[in-house]
Description:
Blueprint: H1 11-22, H2 26-38, H3 41-68, H4 75-83, H5 85-118, E1 127-131, E2 134-137, H6 138-155, H7 158-185, H8 196-199, E3 203-204, E4 207-208, H9 211-228
Helix pairs in contact: 1-7, 2-3, 2-9, 3-9, 4-5, 5-6, 6-7
Amino acid sequence: MSSKFVRGLGLFDSTMIVAGSMIGSGIFIVSADIARQVGAPGWLLMVWLLTGVLTVVAALSYGELAALFPHAGGQYVYLREAHGPLWGFLYGWTLFLVIQTGTVAAVAVAFAKFLGVLIPAVSATNTLFTLGPVSFSTQRLVGIAIIALLTFTNTRGIKTGKTVQNVFTATKIGALALLIALVLFSGRNESAAIHTADFWTPIVNGAQLSTLALLIALGTAMVGSLFSADA
Length: 231
């Protein structure tokens, strides 16, 4: 008797997974740092535009690879077929031990950090106890707790997992749509308006960046945007 994967995700579920991965904590974490590096709103938007182009190119490439190798495993399969089993094996374990682990930890810390804005008790300086050289603050414990909760949720099956994903992603998209609507329809504020000349003038630490410095800043800033778009 042959076994096969169950198609438990529909078009809406799959779209929510991709959208939820892309519209994650990354875009909220890195935007301020990108703005500090490039020094102008126009170049901040340019960083995201370039990242979007690269992301579309990558998505189209993965679409072709997925059609060519319709097997479970994603990048592991593509590396294995292109470069041999060793590189697929190394990538698989690196993804498990470092790449995805680090990403999950970063997102959990971001969640706890933003939660601290609403609940001041959740703070990196609010230490509850210490075990040897490691101190456990309320912020750190919240991050650990959210990882444990979502891991447990995913172990309950694909139906439970996709329901949680759909609810949270729909909430995020709705919140962003509301934020955009408020900006568009709240009216013009002259005191907050940015003049055209300032929109593209890269000012960092009180000095305008040269062309070379701006190119270096754009490349450095894209580390953050590509982290956000890595999904």
